[in-house]
Design a protein that fits this description.
The strands form 4 sheets. This protein has a 3-stranded antiparallel beta sheet with strand order 7-9-8, with no helix packed on it. Strands 1-4 form a two-stranded antiparallel sheet. It has a domain of about 90 residues: Alpha-Beta Plaits (2-Layer Sandwich). It has 3 helices and 9 strands, in the order E-H-E-E-E-H-H-E-E-E-E-E. The chain is of the alpha+beta class. Strand 8 and strand 9 form a beta hairpin. GO terms for molecular function: 3 iron, 4 sulfur cluster binding; 4 iron, 4 sulfur cluster binding; electron transfer activity; metal ion binding. Its cofactor is [3Fe-4S] cluster; [4Fe-4S] cluster. InterPro entries: 4Fe4S_Fe-S-bd, 4Fe4S_Fe_S_CS, 7Fe_ferredoxin, Fd_C, FdxA, RnfB_subfamily.
Length: about 170
Amino acid sequence: MTYVVTENCINCKFQDCVTVCPVDCFYEGENFLVIHPEECIDCGVCEPECPADAIRADTEPGLDEWLALNAKYAEIWPNITEIGTVPPDAEDWNGKPDKAGLLITGEAPPEPHAQKPIYEAGEMPDDADAEHYEVDGAAVPFPEPAGDAPIVRLDPIDTDEPEGFEVDGLRVTP
């Protein structure tokens, strides 16, 4: 038997458990702690110390995934032996359900969440017939005004033109 850190530790990471562990078997990730199952001596001293009630004996049903996760990241993350920085909003996260998706592991995700199209500088996608501007080599079409929304023009500063106002070196005229 060993003890495992479970989902409620995510974004809480109070670390009270760390100071009572006689064998220093806790390891620290960015927003979660884990227990090394090979180092844990099953004393159970840490379990009642956790304010988030996130530490469980691995004999409880449904903890196989958390046991595997503790074992994996205990091999990667640094050992922690004293209380470090507790997140300022730890108490706000305590008890919130469905936090598993928020776990920061330090590994790259299998696929990026979003990826902007990459064009060579000056190159436009085939369907881009509209006027556009470039950002980081990507052509971005000007948006169409919605309904009767006023159109604001941004022109280089013309010192002879007193109307409008200046923002970052551009004259804004309504």
